[in-house]
Amino acid sequence: MIDFTFPPEVEEIRMKVRQFMDEVVRPRWDATDQEDRAEVVKTIGKLRYKAKEEWGLWLPHMPKEWGGMGLGPTAMAAVSAEAGKVGIGPFVLNAQAPDEGNQHTLEHWGTDEQKEKYLRPLCEGTTRSCFAMTEPEVAGSDPTLIKTFAYRDGDEWVVNGHKWFISGARGAKFALLVARTEEDPAIPQAANSCFIVDLPSPGWTVVRDVHTMSGGHNHCEILIEDLRVPAANMLGGQGQGHLLGQFRLGPARLAHCMRWLGQAELALDLMVKRSMERYSHGSYLAEKQGIQWLIADSAMELYQSKLMVLHAAYKIENKMDFTSEVSMAKHFVANSLWRIIDRAVQVHGALGYSTDTPLAGMLMQARWSRFADGADEIHQMRIAQRTIAAWNDFGSTKKATGDLPL
Ligand SMILES: Cc1cc2nc3c(=O)[nH]c(=O)nc-3n(C[C@H](O)[C@H](O)[C@H](O)COP(=O)(O)OP(=O)(O)OC[C@H]3O[C@@H](n4cnc5c(N)ncnc54)[C@H](O)[C@@H]3O)c2cc1C
Predict the structure, then answer these.
(1) What range does the domain containing 381 cover?
(2) How far apart are the CA of 219 and the centre of ligand 1, in A?
(3) Residues 280, 162 share a domain
(4) 176: nearest Cα among 167, 185, 184
(5) Atom 12, ligand 1: which residue's CA is nearest?
(6) Ligand 1 atom closest to Cα of 375?
(7) What is the domain count for the chain?
(8) CA 287 remoteness from chain centre
(9) pLDDT tens per residue, range 207-237
(10) What is the pLDDT of residues 294-329, one digit of tens each?
């Protein structure tokens, strides 16, 4: 029999996260002047202290020896979907991008010294990090094109290049930097290596916080000029930067989807609530068939999104091949998120377009979900390739559609 329930201990954590977000985080965050940087920093510090010391909700995705809660991917879906209902929620739990992905990466690829120096304080919440791969001059969708180049000089690597959209770069204590180290690799995927860069460092210049359609959110442009990195700071082996990036991005993509579930659910809740309160042409909006169709479409898409995320998480947890399922979930949830928030804006009318509800900000944030961490078209390309390969290998496409017992 298939059991669609969480074990009692996971359900207990899920409800605790919900309570913490509802009773502590949201009221405090809503009362914070988010234009005032000093107040924001103070609020986050206080909320993180409460999460860690008073509620025991800290680092849910990391093993206990790193001060975490030791939750696996399916339990993380429950936690992140709850925390994701408040924009700042994952950060309060120290489970935000890009640190969450960097923590997993360091845990898996780091040497003991690298873990103690970089992972330990990151887990304790005393530092932040960033992940620097994308470049303005070449397509981020194809990391084999990376131009930032590192050459060996004695016990150091010397790096030159240009990065942008590096989330959290301002204030980060270190960066995981992907750079080309091989002039003539055996395969294009073996051209890059990854380095841990202490910040600030001479040769690493934050040019600007790239302003986006939803404002400035510390996604920075970085100029790298004769940056010197100790050879001991290579993370993983030489030429393994692509492999490491793929290792990091697979689960990190799903972690995004988990947070997006919370955002999508919030949008649907707001849409239904508004439709039951707003009266026009003789009835409430909720009683109009045209609005019911919008509600139904959003409900179906959220349901599908949850199933896809849980199934992909289940595959990761059980050490099964998860690449296709994560690709499908990433594409589907990102697009559903966009549509679900957009429908909620529609039902709110002018109010939805205003910044009096969280919907406008959520919609603008949701827009990047369809191309960052793998653009829609790249995932579609890979999904199609795997589906064709399944047909070629097994005479059936079944393996490429979740490989479910159906
Ligand atoms: C909010 C935000 C945060 C980010 N944070 C980080 C970060 O912390 N670190 C980091 O390194 N990067 C980060 N990025 C960058 C992100 O990973 C890239 O935007 C992404 O990899 C796509 O690369 P690109 O923008 O260069 O688009 P491109 O690769 O130029 O692609 C543009 C479009 O072309 C199309 N396309 C590309 N290739 C193909 C193809 N083969 N077939 C069909 N269509 C194709 C797609 O429609 C795609 O959307 C962030 C981006 C955003 C928006």
Answers:
(1) 243-400
(2) 13
(3) no
(4) 167
(5) 134
(6) 49
(7) 3
(8) 37
(9) 999 999 999 999 999 999 999 999 999 999 9
(10) 999 999 999 999 999 999 999 999 999 999 999 999
